[in-house]
Amino acid sequence: MQLRDMLKAGAQLPEISDWLDRASSSQRLEAAFELGRGGQRSLYRLAEAAQPITLEHFVPEEMNAVEPVHHRGRNTLPLPPKHRLFEKRFCRPRDGSARLFGYNQSPSRKLIGPGYFVARSTEKEPAWKSRGAIVVDYFQVPDGEVPTSWPEVVPNTKGLQRFVFKGTRDFMRRVSNHVSIGAAYKGEKALDHYFILVREI
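User: That's the sequence. What structure does it adopt?
Assistant: Structure tokens below.
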């Protein structure tokens, strides 16, 4: 039974998490990318019961500072199919602070920009905590070193990316050891759009 079928059958998060953890990396990715908007919405709601996601989910502890970790993603935006696929790339800053730097790698990056962000805990944000334990915050961009392979850091107020990333925050929930689910907000308004991420390592 695939992830989409499990959701339709009313499976709960422990069963889904166990299946994803036992699946091969290719099976996990295929199953995650089969989910459309309804499936991702259901998974985000189920993931409210999960253990709070941590920064270490996105960049495991054994990774060095400024060493990138790729998460392959699929979003539910009203775009042509290939433009729904992307990667969120994260790294730990060299200053040791409790946050991550990252950007979006996508087929449209050269047009709309990299969409840089800072990921951090929502622990001290009571209004956000219930949305997810980690916020991917596009109001902020990296203020320190990033991998040399990454594009130039630019604010999300610059160029066409202001129509996509400016004023946006994504709230993340844990699904399994490699999989997370996010919900997009514009300011404080939920957009009812979601994305699923699968960590490559």
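The first strand starts at residue 69 and ends at 75.
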